[in-house]
Amino acid sequence: xxxxxxxxxxxxxxxxxxxxxxxxxxxxxxxxxxxxxxxxxxxxxxxxxxxxxxxxxxxxxxxxxxxxxxxxxxxxxxxxxxxxxxxxxxxxxxxxxxxxxxxxxxxxxxxxxxxxxxxxxxxxxxxxxxxxxxxxxxxxxxxxxxxxxxxxxxxxxxxxxxxxxxxxxxxxxxxxxxxxxxxxxxxxxxxxxxxxxxxxxxxxxxxxxxxxxxxxxxxxxxxxxxxxxxxxxxxxxxxxxxxxxxxxxxxxxxxxxxxxxxxxxxxxxxxxxxxxxxxxxxxxxxxxxxxxxxxxxxxxxxxxxxxxxxxxxxxxxxxxxxxxxxxxxxxxxxxxxxxxxxxx
Length: 344
What we know:
Layout: H1 4-13, H2 15-33, H3 42-52, H4 56-68, H5 75-100, H6 109-122, H7 130-151, H8 154-177, H9 193-205, H10 211-235, H11 248-261, H12 268-279, H13 281-296, H14 313-333
Helix pairs in contact: 2-3, 2-4, 2-12, 2-13, 2-14, 3-10, 4-9, 4-11, 5-7, 8-9, 9-11, 10-11, 13-14
């Protein structure tokens, strides 16, 4: 059993993880607020800010993998803890976004309820809620992954991550830019499991990562991402490869950023600032699309989307959207009935 001092030390050593959660939420809001900017320098600046935020959701996947895959708990305990924090927000916010968009209005209550059930079962009711569908799938697979990881050594994880990188991001690259389309079937390696497992791998085996190498890969991944987006915008290329979370450039960018942030030393003073941001990060992710849409499509803030320079206005829009989203979630968390829809 851990002593109080040991437990306190673990919390201090994991402050970087809370920073990742807060940063991920902020980057998501910046990415989506950027869409509203139509002012001077819109094209290049839009692609730059959008490109630099592509690590946001991967950071959430990796943080979840770090937290969940090393725990030892029963199946009942695992699903009771996770579903209680995920299922209620998933259902509530899926319905909230459908109501907000006035989908199904004008029909009978029975028709609306049935239409909402079918709609939510088929696809997210708002674009950013796709993350909840993916994390549900990873949660279902987590108990199986834990059994593998109990026996897995460092080389085993190298193999798993290398196989995933080759068969998912690299094959994605081949399909996008070459006539090669690998015919192998490997659904068990699909999706975002590579991010999920990398979070665990970095936490378990990368005790003193080489930050210089991580910086090189992060800069390289970022340059490729932003340059690819600029090229697409300049020549009106239809490909969405460079912005995809499973593209090679975004995977490299995200893995290296996670390594750079891992074990970063955070002072007590700074951590006091991070704690409320961490506690509201999931809620901010859930509510921000309504917040920024209502803010930046209505006066007086709608004028911000058309003035100033693209060098700084997109960032300001993201900052405003994040602050207002934070305030909304902070208030909701203080209301007993509503705090469960924006869990800390």
